[in-house]
Amino acid sequence: MANEIRKCLFPVAGLGTRFLPATKEIAKEMLPLLDRPIITYGVEEALAAGCTEMVMITGRSKKAIEDYFDRSFELEHMLKTRNKTSLYDAVVSIASMAVFIYMRQHSPLGLGHAVLCGEPVCRDAPFGVILPDDVMVADPSVLAQLIAVQRERGGSVIALEEVSPEETSRYGVVAAEIAGEGVYRINDMVEKPGPEKAPSTLAIMGRYVLTPTVFSILKNQQKGAGGEIQLTDALRTLARTEPVWGVLYRGRRFDCGTQPGWLSANIQLAMDNPNLREVVLEALKISGNPQPGR
Ligand code: UTP
Predict the structure, then answer these.
(1) What CATH code is carried by the domain that includes residue 195?
(2) 114: Cβ below 6 Å to ligand 1?
(3) pTM of the predicted model, to two decimals?
């Protein structure tokens, strides 16, 4: 059966306060992870899942993201005249990756509100959602794993990860029953519960396939935790209306939403790269043996 999930929504209108001052003028999704902006990894994941239209929900950061995924004739011309062929090819290929659609979230009212901003372009069919500050390295891509379950079972699908009881207060946590290998039927969810209130240790990670039913729920969604319109609150209601599945995804996740997480992601991915591995090991050697005058 043809994969009809063509659209993937990227909420990138958050304030990124945990990265200030770096994010004063640019979105955290534009910070580099090794050689390219964090957002590129999410777009590549969506492409690998068969999506061809990337719907960016932007805020103040609109310009840098829009320019990044567009042609840059001056730069291309300069690289061409200097015979920098591989860099030229890399720069040109960015704009032809997919179709990019931009919607503006005028005020950062919360993740649920950001998703609602995508309604005009996502209301006709199930669509993917990627929170790009969680970088996922997996084959098949994590979004592809979710789409496979959506095709088989219908409804909406959420990526889950088993966390330790001490960590539940950092995530949305689900109450669910097993429905297949690595697949759960979600009955309820709680935003950031302490270990005593958590219904399980299955935490929601930043990947979703949602049916357009979520929009009608979000339109009436009251503010929740932190005074924001929370996606998790709308998904609770959705789970009472139609099936919401949870998938224990297979792959590695790098939390690039915080400075320590982002730093660790850069180091781990550099260690995976044969050209950069030695650079990291050498830097660690130096930091372990501080030189006079350094
Ligand atoms: P976060 O919870 O990471 O918030 O949002 P944030 O504002 O980006 O960062 P901090 O907490 O201030 O450091 C999760 C995702 O939802 C998007 C963010 O851009 C991020 O991808 N988001 C959040 C929006 O698009 N709009 C919002 O109103 C809130």
Answers:
(1) 3.90.550.10
(2) yes
(3) 0.93
